[in-house]
Please model this.
Amino acid sequence: MKKIILISLFSFTSLFGFGIGNYQISPEFGANLAFQDSGKGTFSYGGYARVWLGVSRIVIAPAFKYDVITKENNLSTAYKNMQIGGLIGFEIPIIPLTPYIGGSYSTFSGGYEDTASFNYGVKFKIPIIRVTIGLDGTYQKPKNIYGNRANMNRIGATIGFQF
Model:
């Protein structure tokens, strides 16, 4: 019975992502909660999806991220931010830790113009259960409705599933 459970566990955890030799394909999706330092101290929450493609510890990922940024001092919605772009990272060989950087095209709903964003972070993959935890940051400077640039630097925690 123990062998059947063990075989089932390993089979189910490798249904989607796989690695052959030095190559890997690993889809990941999850949720994030972040603090935005824009002079007003707002929070954001949202989700993300990316597919890590790698050769010998160097990984790249097309990435999608969606955030809802709250108004100052309460949890009602101020605006929404969607980012589509790419990431590049390096898997540290001894521990399943991947620092990464990247860029995205960033669109807003609610008073800001579209812009480019700089993304950075680190993720840690818990090997047996395929859960990832990490820190993720975004820096962007979109124009507001008055033509002034708003400084937005968000950093937060992520939790996700990597197959």
Notes: The chain has one helix and nine strands. The first strand starts at residue 18 and ends at 20. The mean pLDDT is 84. Helices lie at 2-13.
